[in-house]
Amino acid sequence: MINKTETTVARSYTSDLKLKGFKVHEISGISNPSQPHGRRDFYKIVLVAGDMIIYHGDETIEMNDTFLFFANPNIPHTVVDRSTEKKGYACLFTEAFFSGRERTEILQNSPLFRFGVSPVVRLNREQAAFLTGLFQKMLSVHRSDYHYKDELLRGCIELILHEALSIQPLQNELRQKNAATRITYLFMELLERQFPVDNTGDPLKLRTAQDFAATLSVHVNYLNRSVSAVTGKPTSVHIAERIASEAKALLRHTDWSVADIAYSLGFEYPTYFNNYFKRVTGATPRSFRTGKV
């Protein structure tokens, strides 16, 4: 159980983060209780060694090693510690803090931003030592009175992102080399921008290839050809998988009724949602929620 002191400290910590846009701290000692699975308004990079389970969106990741974990504010997550002790560092920052055109690009191409890319990067001893040095540098700079410390802290974050990408390059990264890849990139960005679904009163607006083509001002056949050529999967499959992934997260981590979830995802009737979910995942929403799959 989390006592009132822990809750007060956590609220103060989050409030301070919102005011300044950046926080870094050391993780040590006995594991703290896990935080509720939910969406937050800041990015987080954690360097940690320990035995734990990470619930990230609809994905469950078991780790017993030294690794980097990237938390995106758009994807709910929970970390459950299974070791008696843990050690490492955590860095939290807002998108506004990590400003600048070039930095925004590296942020968007990093594991912090990409949906469907593993949020965990395993580290060997040499990699862990290098990244530990960066976190320790951030701790030192954050406590200092150096006039340009924010810029130096941003540089450290950027180095961590580059190191993560060099260790674990993104698979099938979409590059804007021609018109087809550009329209595919725009489609993927437009698709992801609709998530997360935070309330039942604002259902998805774009649910079909025709919807996306109209918004992007291209013919639906051209959109389908481009997406299939660049990614190897049809437009409809990308849409179905993303909607199903959000449905899984809502079924697992909210107390919304199946009817409310159906409506929030753009389905007029729960029956339509049930059939859709079963076709894509092989399970009914109710059986998935209760774990009977």
Written account of the structure:
- A hairpin with a 2-residue loop joins strand 2 and strand 3.
- The longest helix has 19 residues, at 125-143.
- This protein has helices spanning 4-20, 101-108, 125-143, 149-167, 179-193, 209-216, 220-231, 235-253, 258-264, 270-281, 285-290, and strands at 22-27, 43-56, 59-71, 77-81, 87-93, 120-122.
- Helix 3 (125-143) runs antiparallel to helix 4, helix 5 crosses helix 7 (220-231) and helix 9 packs across helix 10.
- Strands 1, 2, 3, 4, 5 and 6 form a 6-stranded antiparallel sheet that branches.
- It is of the alpha+beta class.
- It is built from 11 helices and 6 strands.
- It is globular and about 55 Å long.
- Residues 181-291 form the HTH araC/xylS-type domain.
- This is AraC-type DNA-binding protein.
Summarize, please:
With 293 residues, the protein is of the alpha+beta class. 48% of the residues lie in helices and 16% in strands.
Give a short account of the largest sheet: 6 strands, antiparallel
Indicate the structural class.
Answer: alpha+beta
Count of the separate structural domains: 2
Tally of DSSP β-strands: 6
Mean pLDDT: 82
CATH class of the largest domain: Mainly Beta
What is the helix/strand order?
A: HEEEEEHEHHHHHHHHH
Shape, please?
globular
Number of helices: 11
The CATH architecture of the largest domain would be Sandwich
Head-to-tail CA distance between termini: 31 Å
Rg over CA atoms:
21 Å
Assembly context of the chains:
single chain
- Portion in strands: 15-25%
Helix percent reads 40-55%
CATH topology of the largest domain: Jelly Rolls
> Can you say what the CATH homologous superfamily of the largest domain is?
Regulatory protein AraC
Poorly predicted segments? 1-12, 33-39, 171-177
Keywords: DNA-binding, Transcription, Transcription regulation
InterPro entries: Homeodomain-like_sf, HTH-like, HTH_AraC, Tscrpt_reg_AraC-type_HTH
Organism: Chitinophaga ginsengisegetis
Domain HTH araC/xylS-type: 181-291
